[in-house]
Design goal:
Elements: H1 2-30, H2 37-65, E1 72-73, E2 80-81
Antiparallel strand pairs: 1-2
Length: 82
């Protein structure tokens, strides 16, 4: 079971790095003020899907660390931390 946790942590870490790039580029494009409604909708879909995937990644990391998830207010960065 320890090995499964280590593998899960490694995969989650690498996947989170990829998601950070996807989220960052989607947010940058959304902030550029595009007028094409279908493009903006697609960017919102990308941002939402990557946020859901990031949540799954946090759950996978929590499993690998055998931790309970607790939401807490953050003072910097994103509004919620795990």
């Amino acid at each position: 079971m320890e090995a499964v946790g280590q593998i899960a942590a490694g995969i989650a870490h690498d996947f989170n790095n990829i998601l950070s790039v996807i989220q960052g580029h989607a947010e940058l494009q959304l902030n550029m003020g595009h007028e094409d409604g279908s493009l903006v909708q697609s960017l919102h879909e990308i941002a939402g899907a990557s946020a859901r995937a990031a949540s799954l990644t946090r759950q996978l990391l929590a499993f690998s660390r055998k931790q309970m998830l607790h939401a807490a207010r953050s003072t910097c960065g994103s509004p919620w931390t795990i």
